[in-house]
Design brief:
332 residues; Beta-galactosidase, Chain A, domain 5; ten-stranded antiparallel sheet; 23 strands; 12% helix; globular
Length: 332
């Protein structure tokens, strides 16, 4: 073995050691901060992205951003309220947990009170008091990866009542307005090859498919906001591909969620829904319907990612080609 070969080997070993050491130094820091008018928030950061959760209300995630960048989640005024028999529910923006199917006033049980907090390693867990009207207890556990942008959001619903309850976990993310959401269509297969339907597309009574905020294409369903259009609209799908993308102001938000083949999903078979009204845009994933006996729980897990923005071409095929390598990075 000559000296040049030995030198190359030493350099390679040194480079590998540096990379290993750098990877070993990557970690998540968690600190208590004030944010969005809330004095008791927790900031999770790995130097790449930040996640901020509040303990004074919730359980809620109120920020997800590149470190030092803009929040991809919406920050809504606290004075916006939905008045119900159970009290005033405030949208407030950010990410929350409900149980489906939707009903008034049950779904709008207020989450204005402080939550119990547990910090363990890279995870912060928020547990709400039992909802008096439903007997359901909500919990959100947030885990930030030491490197990259992945956030794992574990949603748990527990029946603390005295009788069985049928429900589905429902994870709702209000995003900062002004961007564009894409929901992937099922792969296009010709009539010669496939005769059976691919999936349901579910509409509500107030859904208007001629609405300019909705665009149904061959590869994607696209959804945007319109501040001048305060009419609500909503649609839902069974998404076997398990992801949705939203781009705004230089950031691309990927939200991943599971699909369980053969499971019974709410709302005529939806594991994903979206809702918009004015500047409000919500990305909603759902788990299967579950019958919970007293004391039983159901869990629904999302994974979040942030990437630098890509050009959202008006052409579906071009956009699909741009997104493909990014989506592949989230398939872990």
């Amino acid at each position: 073995m000559n000296a040049r070969t030995v030198l190359r080997g030493l350099l390679a070993a040194t480079a590998a050691a540096i990379l290993t050491a750098a990877a070993g130094e990557a970690k998540v820091s968690i600190e208590k901060i004030q944010y969005y008018g809330q004095p008791n928030c927790y900031l999770l950061t790995n130097g790449r992205v930040d996640v901020i959760i509040t303990t004074d209300i919730g359980p809620r995630i109120i920020a997800y951003r590149f470190t030092g960048g803009q929040n991809i989640l919406s920050e809504m005024p606290f004075d916006e309220v939905v008045r119900t028999e159970l009290g005033d529910w405030r949208p407030m923006g950010g990410h929350r947990l409900w149980h489906a199917p939707e009903a008034v006033p049950r779904s709008y049980s207020p989450d204005n009170d402080p939550v119990e907090v547990e910090v363990s390693g890279d995870t912060v867990t928020l547990t709400q008091k039992v909802e008096p009207a439903t007997g359901i207890q909500k919990q959100i556990a947030v885990t930030l990866a030491p490197q990259g942008s992945r956030v794992t959001v574990r949603h748990t619903l527990t029946n603390r009542g005295l009788w069985p309850v049928e429900l589905a976990p429902w994870a709702l993310t209000i995003v900062r307005p002004g961007g564009e959401q894409v929901i992937p269509q099922e792969p296009f297969i010709s009539h010669d090859e496939k005769k059976l339907p691919a999936r349901p597309l579910v509409l509500w009574h107030y859904t208007d498919l001629s609405d300019s905020r909705l665009k149904l294409g061959r590869r994607f369903i696209r959804v945007t906001t319109d501040p001048a259009n305060d009419n609500p609209t909503k649609l839902g799908v069974l998404n076997t591909l398990g992801w949705t993308a939203y781009q705004v102001d230089g950031a691309l938000f990927i939200k991943r969620y599971p699909f369980q083949d053969g499971a019974r999903y709410p709302d005529m078979g939806c594991n994903y829904e979206t809702f918009t009204k004015g500047t409000f845009l919500e990305l909603e994933s759902l788990g299967p319907l579950a019958r919970l006996e007293p004391g039983e729980s159901v869990i629904h897990v999302e994974r979040w990612y942030l990437f630098p923005a890509v050009r959202f071409s008006a052409d579906d095929e071009e956009l699909a080609a741009s997104l493909a390598p990014i989506i592949a990075q989230t398939a872990d």
